[in-house]
Design brief:
74% of the residues lie in helices and 0% in strands. By secondary structure, the protein is mainly α.
Length: 439
């Protein structure tokens, strides 16, 4: 074995493989969300003189980097393998997180956020694919959900840590903490196995079978000589499939717009409403708690009903949360509404992904999911920058129960409140129901 090639048969048990992948995704979630917790501090950092519009652009730039990373992931995995790709992605975003912590200017900081986003975008699909391969078949849905919770847990950790750190030490240490993922790499090098499917696809059959025997999993039979993968792009152009992709893509776009717009700007919105920084960050932690608990409940219910039903329920919960937020409720009710928003955003996204992944026929599933998720990523990119522009326009944002007692006004159509988003969500619900009722 080459000194540069890690062991293909890892030392960790299958449950520990899943746990380590989930841990990497906790760091992934932390590094994605750390920006939102530091926006109030960045706005107050006089040497840079940043405004809401500039910070909205930087928030979206990082997500563009994630889109680039997701697109490059397949090519990189083909060269490195899933194990090395996971490690390389974690090392990449950790190094650029250190760069963000020491960035001398806003422009350099934005560049480093983009570069970190490339690693963040490549790690998630690799970690999920690797963990699910070594999970028992009857537990793969649960494993998928737990990996998603790892990302949300990272967001919750960054919010709670920000309450303690930012006021005392400023925003820079928050980015340094994001580089702790580097400490996991030696464990991953010796402990993680390489994907048996990847090894088999590269003609390394003996290594693939050794991994399969060690972990008690199956590896695909060798492809017949001269066999070619079935093309599926033409099948995507049929009217039925295009209609489904349009509806699912619009749903994914709206959910991602909601998730990333709200996750990025929620602490600053609460600061503008008159809450101190610690309380403002506690709203982000509440959003994550709602996403985790709601995701567990929706997943449990989906196994007993149907993912489509739970996706529609999630949209409804999100709409209710937006109505409550737009009414300017007292602070306790406001926390409840934010928790419901977590269910309606991240919880709905999980259910929608589960449903869409089983709706399309197997022959076109990969291509269809690629189009679906690509459209959704546009929503994640536009969310932070759109809300940043609205805030920069100087529209008053307040809540009746907030300490500042500002007039209630929440921007419409950006996933924070107002009838524009609510009606859009309702239209998406109706469209999903109509196009999938045959299911």
């Amino acid at each position: 074995m080459s000194v540069w090639r890690p062991p293909t048969v890892g030392r960790l048990s299958a449950p520990m493989v899943v746990a380590l992948c989930a841990l990497v995704l906790v760091f992934d979630g932390y590094d994605i969300s750390v920006y939102s917790t530091t926006i109030p501090a960045l706005l107050a950092y006089e040497p840079w003189g940043a405004g809401a519009a500039e910070l909205g652009v930087i928030g979206s730039v990082a997500l563009v980097g994630m889109l680039v990373g997701a697109l490059l992931c397949g090519i990189a995995t083909d060269v490195l393998g899933r194990k090395l790709m996971l490690m390389a992605g974690a090392a990449w975003f950790s190094v650029w997180m250190i760069g963000c912590a020491v960035a001398p200017s806003l422009e350099v900081f934005g560049l480093f956020r983009f570069l970190a986003g490339i690693g963040l975008g490549g790690v998630m699909p690799t970690a999920i694919a690797l963990a699910v391969e070594f999970a028992p078949r009857h537990r793969r849905s649960l494993v998928n959900m737990l990996l998603g919770i790892g990302v949300v847990l990272g967001t919750m950790i960054v919010a709670l840590l920000g309450i303690v750190v930012i006021q005392a030490l400023g925003f820079r240490p928050m980015y340094l903490f994001g580089a702790v993922a580097l400490l996991v790499l030696p464990v991953a090098w010796f402990g993680l196995p390489e994907s048996a499917e990847y090894l088999a696809s590269k003609g390394r059959r003996e290594e693939a079978e050794a991994v399969a025997r060690h972990y008690g999993i199956e590896v695909s039979a060798p492809a017949a000589p001269g066999a070619r993968p079935r093309a599926s792009l033409k099948a995507l152009r049929t009217r039925a499939v295009l209609g489904a992709l349009a509806v699912f893509g619009a749903a994914c776009f709206s959910v991602q717009l909601f998730i990333y717009g709200l996750n990025t700007w929620l602490p600053q919105l609460m600061r503008m409403a008159g809450f101190p920084l610690g309380s403002a960050l506690s709203f982000l932690a509440t959003l994550c708690a709602g996403a985790i608990l709601g995701g567990l409940v929706l997943s449990w219910a989906a196994d007993r009903t149907h993912p489509r039903t739970m996706a529609l329920v999630g949209f409804g919960i999100g709409a209710v949360a937006l109505v409550i937020l737009s009414l300017g409720p007292p602070t306790p009710v406001l926390y409840l509404a934010v928790a419901l928003a977590g269910i309606g955003s991240n919880g709905t996204a999980a259910m929608l992904n589960a449903f869409v992944s089983t709706w399309f026929p197997a022959g076109i599933r990969a291509s269809a999911l690629g189009v679906y998720m690509g459209v959704g990523r546009l929503g994640s990119v536009l969310g932070p920058i759109t809300l940043g522009w609205i805030i920069a326009a100087g529209l008053p944002i307040g809540l009746a129960g907030a300490p500042g007692g500002l007039p209630t006004h929440i921007p419409t159509g950006v996933g924070v409140g107002g009838s524009g988003t609510i009606y859009f969500s309702s239209d998406i619900e109706n469209a999903i129901y109509k196009i999938t009722k045959k299911q």
